[in-house]
Specification:
By secondary structure, this protein is an all-alpha fold. Helix content is about 80%, strand content about 0%.
């Protein structure tokens, strides 16, 4: 059955053929790929699938379950890459997902001090979401701790965007715009905090 609905927002319409052809597999697969660093429209497909669930073409509970499974598994693959592959692997291939050695070092230091909270927040920040698991693995965080926060973050993230797509309808573009503002504010806050910490350390007497 073709996934066609009247008054489909442009951001959803562009992904309709993917959801139409692959259904839940598109949700789980693309969310998984995006969450361990592969450039893929995981979040957008999740929202699109939820939108079509809202007009009766998919089951919203299955969209949530598949999206949640893909998010958790994807981040854990990223964690394994960072933990077992280490810095040599990231240095060699990190450039393809914009992970420069400088960014990795700053993010790793930040994770070591605020890992649990960052894992949850990172879900909603473009760039951090994709590198979240890899950086956590590089920071030598315990897998059990990472998994627990990862599950919480994934559940909140998938639930929020599933609800936005399901109930948002033609207002979904507004949700996405607010998410961009949120990501920008969080990104600036994290950068400011890192700079503050660096300056504070330099000012401390040796």
């Amino acid at each position: 059955m073709e996934l066609v609905a009247q008054h489909v927002p442009a951001v959803i319409e562009s992904l309709a053929p993917i959801v139409n052809q692959y259904g839940y597999l598109a949700v789980g697969g693309l969310v998984l790929l995006e969450d361990f660093g592969v450039p893929a429209p995981g979040e957008a497909v999740l929202i699109a699938a939820a939108f079509f669930a809202g007009v009766g073409h998919l089951n919203i509970f299955l969209v949530f379950i598949v999206g949640f499974a893909g998010a958790v598994l994807g981040d854990n693959i990223g964690f394994a890459i960072g933990n077992y592959g280490g810095e040599p692997l990231v240095k060699r291939y990190g450039k393809y997902i914009f992970l420069t050695p400088e960014r990795v070092k700053k993010a790793t230091n930040f994770f070591e001090h605020h890992g649990g909270k960052v894992i949850i927040i990172a879900r909603f920040v473009e760039g951090l979401r994709q590198a979240n698991g890899i950086i956590a693995g590089l920071s030598a965080m315990r897998w059990g701790k990472f998994l627990s926060f990862n599950i919480i973050g994934a559940a909140i993230w998938v639930a929020l965007w599933s609800a936005a797509g399901y109930f948002g309808g033609n207002h979904i573009s507004t949700f996405l715009r607010y998410q961009a503002y949120f990501a920008a504010v969080v990104g600036v806050a994290i950068l400011t905090f890192i700079i503050y910490k660096v300056i504070s350390r330099k000012r401390k007497p040796s």
